[in-house]
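Predict fold of Iron ABC transporter permease; 336 aa.
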Amino acid sequence: MMRQVASWFYCLLFAAALLLLMGLSLRLGPTPTSSWDAWNACFAYDDASDAQFAIRQIRLPRTILAAIIGASLATSGAIMQGVTRNDLAGPTIMGLSSGGTFCLLLGLLLLPGLGFNQAIWLSFLGAGLGYFTVYSVAFLARGGITPVRLALAGTVVSILLSAFTQGLTIYFTLHDEMLYWTVGGIANTSWPQVATALLPALPGMLAALLLAPSITLLSLGEEVAGGLGQRTQLVRTVATLSVLLLTGGAVAVAGPVGFVGVMTPHLARYLVGYDYRKIIPLTALLGAILTVAADIASRTAIDGQEIPLGLFTSMIGATFFIALARRRSSQRGGPH
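Predicted 3D structure, encoded as tokens:
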């Protein structure tokens, strides 16, 4: 009962923090604005006001898109970690982000006038190919699939796909076109991009919430889940489709925003335990908070310049991995 109350408390707390951050994001930018301008831009829009135009047409879609991307990547990471029982699983580690970016590059080469609709389908295709490539490499390794082999295979496949992407970018001189996709960012966001990200995110998130009880059982082990009557293969299949929807849409509009899906499930599990009915909504909130905060930092860290969103999340992710590695090393060492 206490844990249930705590999970609701954390959800309400982080939802309030997300709303405050989104409000702050609407205020920040080269055009001076006030809280009253933000309110009017949302509920009593006047297109003759420069401040309201900047909020309604530039900052608001960007802020909403950042929240969608963070929630999508974080939720997909939680699903992958629960299904694979691998704490290092995530869109960046498991080849989804690099696969989506690689297919987007091929699309730019073959279809120079690539639109958002084509981009999102190519992103889904690339994410799926990257994901299944990682599983194939891990499966072919001696001893079969284990969490460690999945993490190693994912790292190798991600590096390989990234190398192909960078090599083709240099060879065909697509630096300007691919800079946005390779570092991850949401500059110059418009409402169609928000709709593009939201369209796959909604069914993906709904599937994740419906799957949460089954993922909780599967995270205890396939034998335990099967012994309790769960159709494990069906759960894995639906979970994979949910991950592809969430990750494919995010990569299509923002490129590879790294490590959000790896970090946030750890914090959610630390706060509410191992019940994925609580982990998934909390992880979505934490992912949205992380990306909105990183987007604010990307716009304000250097006066007059913007740093890509993916660079901030990658720096945070690298710090997190060092801390996680040190914690695991100390646990394995034990008392002397």
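The mean pLDDT is 83.
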